[in-house]
Design a protein that fits this description.
This protein is α+β, with helices and mostly antiparallel strands. The chain has 11 helices and 10 strands. The relative contact order is 0.08.
Amino acid sequence: MQRHKGDSMQMRKLVKSGLSSFVVALPKEFIDQNKLGKGDSVYIEHTSKNELTIATEYNEGRIEKREIVITVDKKPFETIKRELTAAYLDNYHEIILKGKDLPKYMKSIKEEVNEKVALEVVDESSERLVIKDFLNYKDIDATKLIRRIDNIVRSMLIDMKEAFGNKDVSIMIYERDKEVNKLSFLVYRIVKTASRNPEVAKMLNISTMDIVAIWDINLHLEKMGDECKRIARLIVELDTKSVNKKRMLEIISLMEEQYKKAMEAFHTKNAQLADEVHFHRKEIFKELDTLLEKAKDMNLIEIVGKFKGMMSHLTDISRLIRYT
């Protein structure tokens, strides 16, 4: 046996076994440290052209289990909320919230937990709340999650037409935005983890460019959901006597058409279709500006601004498809 200077690397000779197989002896130290014996299994991964990794456990997509303690005393709830979300995105297996002020925040914290996929309260007292994460990356498909978010946002756009004078529709769209946010946080978590853990990226079949594209499209869809929610609320409050409802419905249909084109281009990687979205941007802005020419309703002015924001997100999606 030969050792390389300055490290514990050992050189072993290959021994032919049968017609096409070769065997190599494992170091005794490795056998003893891992308490291996005859018949035990080891796992071999071809990690590069000239390198193999031998392990005693199958570690595909393994996430280290960690815990974090968040103190709630003398903090506004928004700070606690952001710390909880950060812990979720950073894959903490156990999140413990502590403090004498916990009772007054308990209801709001539980609502936040319910809005995160795979989080669950497992223990609580007046000064301690334990939240555990049960996410299994083997059950996740980031592409399917993006399609689910896409479908929800699309339904929000379609139902927006029914929001005129109908507060119930506005509330329904608002609730759907919560689901968009819930799934969006999960997607952010997946791509963040995949960017840091090559094993997870490999298990999810996500490349570096996929991580960039998924992060970007998720951001735009989440923002689109926010705009749909806000526009629906404003539509309810429109003065229908001073607003051309027919023209408004035409604009919503136009936005819906552009959205469908942008997302079809994304899912099919169709650069030509993405270019159509980009090229129609000025035309749609012009259509939106016509709504403002005689506008007296402040809600309408705000709606047009939000439609322009949505169109900007769609244009960014078209660039994402063309340039990545």
